Amino acid sequence: MVNTVYVDNAATTAMSEEAIAAMMPYLRGNYGNPSSLHTVGQNAKEALEEARAEIAALIGAEPKEIYFTSGGSEADNQAIRSAAYTGLAKGKKHIITTAFEHHAVLHTLKKLEKEGFEVTYLDVHSDGLITAGEVEAAIRPDTALVTIMYANNEVGTIEPIREIGAVCRAHKVTFHCDAVQAVGHIPVNVADDNIDMLSVSAHKFHGPKGVGFLYCKKTVPLRNLIEGGAQERNRRAGTENIAGICAMAAALKGAVSRLGENMAKEAALRDKLIDGLTKIEHSKLNGSREKRLPGNVSMCFEGIEGESLLLLLDAKGICASSGSACTSGSLDPSHVLLALGLPHEVAHGSLRLSLSEYNTEEEIDYIIAEVPKVVEYLRSISPVWEELEKGERPHLI
Ligand SMILES: *Cc1c(COP(=O)(O)O)cnc(C)c1O
User: Fold this and answer.
1) Average pLDDT, whole number, for the chain?
2) Fold classification of 17-257 (topology level)
3) Residue nearest to atom 6 of ligand 1 (CA)
4) 39 CA to middle of ligand 1, Å?
């Protein structure tokens, strides 16, 4: 097989035809600024509000609770800073999160710590899950915010968000959820799931890059991150990315309309991959097998470097990841795998395969045939593997 096998959909996805089609009219003819009072501008405004209403309905929100942003990172930054400063105004300076959030969350919290906020980083269990009880036990009278992701971008585990949301409601603590890996992939409904603020990014569900949204419940105050014009009900300045927003709405509509079918298809391919790859000796699936995204396979192979594995797989046309796209290029093992308690040596040998509705069974068979060969080759030239085989160091998995 010489075609590209793209299994890095947690990093980004190909745009769907429906998303591209929805974008085109706003790139060519309808170039108006929605803030303009003339017809060309008002046509754009109409498209913007239609997209907002469509998106709101797809997650169980009201249109006025949707704020368009430049993507998931901006939505995370705005939600967290807004809730933190709103809390601070009432004397609350404590925030609860997990140790394995996306860096858009963790780096924002690090900055807030420097400003005097206190952050509790809940440990995740070795299966990549936390419990609502653990969140509840960490809540203090001065807790301003709980921010916990819906599904992890590296190991694909799905957290008990509805229960965590219920605990936050009971204690009157604002609950933000980074749902970038969840929306469009598993059912998400902000009302049923007790979510106050939700971050979403279009390019993770076959929409364009550089566009996303923040849901903020109408009873929860929202502060600006970006100052300027009065767009987005005064909460996010800047001329709206109409083409991107319309494409995002179309992509989400497509993803949600095919949700059941896509989940079943991807889960079957995922399970075949897991069964095939866990046959490799001294390998391990990272995170719960049951509570995981339909498209996520995260593995560790002892005695190899994930980076080398990726490069050799790329040479065979397989585009995968060793973890998060954001940490590739750094030699530190992933903070997510370390948070699951994996030893450094094991975490270095990681491989993430993330599927989409476009993957085929033929591609999965190809991956199952090729990965063992590459792992075997890398082990044959690995001094660490030699030590493991000679019994000079113990196998950890
Ligand atoms: C991709 C991702 C983000 C960042 O979204 P961008 O639109 O790329 O800024 C945030 N959180 C999670 C969990 C992600 O997977």
Assistant:
1) 95
2) Aspartate Aminotransferase; domain 2 (3.40.640)
3) 72
4) 35
Question: Alpha carbon of 184 to those of 34, 46, 117, 167, 278: distances in Å?
Answer: 27, 24, 33, 25, 28
Can you name the CATH fold of 5-13+259-390?
Aspartate Aminotransferase, domain 1 (3.90.1150)
Query: How many helices (DSSP H) and strands (DSSP E) are in the chain?
Result: 14, 12
The alpha-carbon radius of gyration of the chain (Å, integer) is: 22
pLDDT (tens digit per residue) in 280-331: 999 999 999 999 999 999 999 999 999 999 999 999 999 999 865 544 455 6
> Atom of ligand 1 at shortest distance to CA of 10?
15
Q: Ligand 1: distance of its center to the CA of 11 in Å?
A: 8
| CB distance 69 to ligand 1 below 6 Å | no
Give CA–CA dist 342/180, Å, rounded.
25
**Strand bridging mode 118-122 / 318-319:** unpaired
Give residue limits of the domains in the chain. 5-13+259-390, 17-257
In the chain, the N- to C-terminal Cα span, in Å, equals 32
Eight-state DSSP code of residue 64: G
Q: How far apart are CA 24 and CA 17, in angstroms?
A: 11
Q: Is 180 in the pocket of ligand 1 (CB under 6 A)?
A: yes
The tokens describing 251, both together, are 């992509």
Of the candidates 67, 77, 68, 69, the one whose C-alpha atom is nearest the C-alpha of residue 104 is 77
Closest atom of ligand 1 to 151 CA is 13
pTM score above 0.90: yes
**pLDDT tens, position by position, 212-262:** 999 999 999 999 999 999 999 999 999 999 999 999 999 999 999 999 999
What is the pLDDT at residue 327? 47
